[in-house]
TrEMBL record:
Similarity remark: Belongs to the pseudouridine synthase RsuA family.
Name of the protein this chain belongs to: S4 domain-containing protein
Top-rank taxon: Bacteria
Example GO BP: enzyme-directed rRNA pseudouridine synthesis
Alphabetic keyword roster: Isomerase, RNA-binding
GO molecular function: RNA binding; rRNA pseudouridine synthase activity
Species assigned in the record: Klebsiella aerogenes (Enterobacter aerogenes)
Length: 86
């Protein structure tokens, strides 16, 4: 929930939870806790109240692409080789 809301990567959020820096409704969170987004939910990181909104229904799109040999699966190649994003 916190990673999707933009408060860090999943690994960063996991580290904060393991360090006891995240609380849900006044209770220290532990890894694996499930949170249902409901009105009045209070999530805090380092004591700061975090705003988390219920995510809207998103359309899932799957893209199939035939990657030719020699094309790289990276956003940027410092050597200038062709990528799937070119």
């Amino acid at each position: 929930v916190l990673a999707r809301a933009g408060h860090g990567s999943r690994r960063e959020i996991e580290a904060k939870i393991e360090a006891g820096r995240v609380s849900v409704d006044g209770k220290i969170a532990t890894l694996g806790d499930r949170v249902e987004i409901v009105p009045g939910l209070k999530i805090r990181i380092d004591g700061h109240l975090i705003s988390v909104k219920e995510s809207a229904e998103q359309i899932c799109r799957v893209l199939a692409y035939y990657k030719p040999e020699g094309e790289l699966c990276t956003r940027n190649d410092p050597e200038g080789r062709p990528t799937v994003f070119d």
